[in-house]
Model the fold of this input.
Amino acid sequence: MLATAGSAIGLGNIWKLPYMIGVNGGSAFVIVFIACIFFVGIPLMMTEILLGRRAQKNPLDGVAALAAEAGVCSWWKVIGGMGMITGLLILGFYSVIGGWVLNFITQSASGNFVGITAAQSTGNFEQLLASPLTLLFWHSIFMCLTMGVVAHGVNSGLEKANNILIPALFAILLILLGYSMSVGNMVAAYDFMFSLDFSKITPVAVLSALGHAFFSLSLGMGSVMVYGSYLQRNVSIARTTIYIALADTLLGLLVGLAIYSLVFANQLAPNAGPGLIFQTLPIAFGHMPGGSLIATLFFMLVAFAAWTSAISLVEPAIAWVVENTRVSRKQTCVALGLAVWLLGVAVLLSFNDWQHIKIVFGLNIFESLDKLTSTILLPMGGLLMAIFAGYFMRKEHVQEELHLSDSAFKLWRYTNNYIAPVGIAAVFLYLFGLVQ
Ligand code: PHE
Done:
């Protein structure tokens, strides 16, 4: 359970959710995001955990084994194969952003943010983006940290550390929130994030919110399945899921409030994009008493959260190679690590020298990878898992894992079999231009 929480809580909550809210029009995005967590995220997280716990294998062989148990075509294992690739693609940009966080630890510790103004903070971040070598250095360190742990097997020490470090992250966030509340514009932030204005909901916001629900809960690519396979038989899947989903969502929304309160007080642009937290947080840390220390601790905790998520992104692929070939775990880590590192180099260049290179729909390398994984691959993986568990596995087997009361089981089945798949399919139909 700790490992799953460690996978879910990461840059998705702290870095991505806040800027996505701004880019997608504020409250419209937040409302749809919360709805997606409840109606799609929670049921599908239960589904993914149950698949993992029943299969007791890596995602690809696991789904194949479950398909055999259900007496259906073994091709369902594409779910696992697709998930492994998705995880590696996500890590390609995740590691670059993880590198930004590492850089900000050193900047905080050396007192760089003391007394910083909004304009200086923006300039400081732009300077980082404009230096490929600095980005390369930190991206490489982040990749080494990630692959180093994975090479030694999923590190149980790291998982235990989650026990202290996730609450610590919450605690430090509350300090930040308190400070933002006293100096920032909390009313405007609240209004921006929670005012009910359904007219602002656009199809793009819905698509992004659905994709982000998957990203934030680590769903649709097999990470949760891997950790589900470690979950003891007597632990309730529903309770585990609800705790994780609530903590994960709450954390993201609290960071959002703290950030927007600073954004509005400093006349910054809410739609600044991926650099948002790196431009706003130094302003707060730079002016609060003991700010350098608090900032250093904050970015260290964020780096830790990112690290545990990054590990879960490669674990399915590594587990599959190790269980199916004679290649050792260490060699697999070096090979896959290098491939992902190279992808990351392309991503970090897309913030500077390769900015003008557009892949699809006018998106640069980073944006294309992000959109491809969050809005297509993860929801597609989730859709297939929902259909497989809901329509192809034996109902008794599913209930054996979920172990729910009759009414709760009906509720899960209803959301897993109808609401989630129809919702995801509707978004895809729109995306591919089949409906307007
Ligand atoms: N959920 C992680 C985060 O919020 C990212 C992640 C996505 C991890 C998909 C694993 C799988 O940072």
